[in-house]
Amino acid sequence: MIIMKSSCLIFNVCFIGLISASNQTMGQPTSSPRIVSRTETAEMPPLHATIFGSASGASGIYLDVKGTTLRSGDLVSDDNGRTWRKQPMTPDLYAGLPRGYRRNPVTSVIDHKTGRLLTIVNALDVPDLDPNINEPPIALNTYYLRYRVSADNGMTWAKEGPIIVKGKHDAVHPLPGVEIGKNSFYLGDLGSIPLITKQGRILVPAQATLLGQDGKLANPGGGYTYTDVVILIGKWKRDHSVEWSMGGRVQADPARSSRGMIEPTLAELPDGRIMMVMRGSNDAKTKNGQRLPGYKWMSVSSDGGTRWSTPEPFCFDDGNPFFSPSAMSTLFRHSSGRIFWFGNITDQNPEGNLPRWPFMMAEVDPVRTRLMRNTLLQLDTETATDKARGRLDISHFSMLEDRETGEIILTYPRNHGGYKEREWVTVRLAVQ
C-alpha cells in the first residue's frame, strides 16, 4: 500500500493490479485492462520505438487498413510481428549528408483515408558535430523538424523536406518565434505521436525553445531547459506534400513549471475536442528553498487544435492532481474507443526527473478529461533487486494494438545505474 498525497487530501492507492471493475463513471467502463503476459529480453524487441506510429491512437503501426503488415525501421513483418525481414525504404535519405548532420525519425502516423504514411524527423545541421554526443547542447539552438511521406504502404519515400509554416517563412525562420541557429523546435519523445483528426487535419505536437530580448535562449523558469508547446497543423496536397500552419502556443507559468511545457501527447475525444497532456518540471527550487509540486499538465482545444486552454495540472476524476516526475507520458486510444494514459505516478513529490517509477496506466474520462482513479493499474516498479543495480528509470515506452487480439502491446526499457545497463520488457494487456 502506498499513500499518495495531493493538494487537498490523502488517499490510498493499491498498486496490486486491477483496482475496481464495478463502478461506472460518466457512462464509461471503468475496469482496468488485464495483464496477459510479461516477458523480458536482453535485446530491444522489433516493435519498440518504431518510427511508424498509430493512425489516431487506435490501430498501432499497421501499414494498411485491415491487414497485418508491420514496419519497424528497416524491418517488415507480413505476419503480425511473428517474423521479420529486412527491407529498407528507398531512397536512402541519409545518403550524402555532411558529417555531423542528424536525421532522427521520432514518431509517425498512417492516414487510413489516403493511405499515406507521415514520419516526423528531428533534424540537426551542424557540420562535424560528434555523432556520439547523445543530446548536444547546441541542439537547443539548432534543432528543427522535417517530414517524410510514403504513398505505397511504407515501401518508398515520395516526399521529404523541412516543416515550414506557410506565408512569410523560410528554412531559417520556419515558424513564428523560431530562428534556427538561435532557438529551435523539435519532438521531445516517443509520446509525441502525430494525430489525424476526424476532419482530416494533421496535428504534430512539438516544442520550441524561447528567445529572450537579448537574442539568446530564455529560461524564465530557471530549470535545465525551457520550452513552449507548439502544435503544427498540416493539410495534404495532391502531390503528397503537406501545407503547414501553426496553432497557438501553449505556455506554462514559469512559477508553476520550471521547464515550461514539454513532450505533448494528443488524443481526439468523442465530441471532437482535442486533449493534450504535457510534461512539466519542478527541478528548480523556489526562492524560499521549497520545491514546486511536480505534475503532468493538461490542455484542451475545441477548434481542432488551433486554440488551447491554459494548461492546468492533470487530475483524477475527484479533481485532485497526482505527483509525476518530469518524464514522458502517452495518451493511447484503443479500438474500443477507450482512451488510456501511460506514465509515472509517484507517492511523494518528485525531484525534477526522478523517480521514474512506478510505471502506471489509467483510463481517461473523455467528458471531464480526467483520469479515472479506480482504473489505476501498476505496470512496473522498483524491486529489491533493482536497488542493488543502481537507480531505476522506466520511461521511453511505446505501444500498439494487436490487430488480431485487440491487446495493447507495451514495450519499454528498464534502465539501471543512470542508463548504464538495461533489460527490455514486453507487456500484453487485454482490454475488457
Shape: globular
Mean pLDDT across all residues, rounded?
Answer: 89
Measured between the Cα atoms of the first and last residue, the distance is: 25 Å
**What is the count of DSSP helices, taking H or I runs of 4+ residues?**
2
Strand content: 35-45%
Low-confidence stretches: 1-27, 52-60
Number of strands: 31
**What would you report as the Rg, rounded to the nearest angstrom?**
21 Å
Q: Roughly how much helix do the residues carry, as a percent range? A: under 10%
Count of separate structural domains: 2
Classification by helices and strands: mainly beta
Largest sheet: 6 strands, antiparallel
Please, could you describe this protein's structure?
The protein has 432 residues and is mostly beta strands. It folds into 2 domains: 1-46 and 315-432, no CATH class; 50-265, no CATH class. Helix content is 2%, strand content 37%. The protein has helices spanning 139-142, 384-388; strands at 2-5, 10-13, 24-25, 28-29, 34-41, 70-72, 75-77, 85-86, 102-111, 116-124, 144-150, 159-162, 185-186, 195-196, 202-211, 217-218, 227-236, 242-246, 262-268, 274-279, 296-301, 312-313, 330-333, 339-344, 359-365, 370-371, 377-380, 392-394, 398-401, 408-416, 421-430. Strands 13, 14, 15, 16, 17 and 18 form a 6-stranded antiparallel β-sheet that branches. Strands 5, 28, 29, 30 and 31 form a 5-stranded antiparallel β-sheet that branches. A hairpin with a 5-residue loop joins strand 17 (227-236) and strand 18. Mean pLDDT is 89; it is low at 1-27 and 52-60.
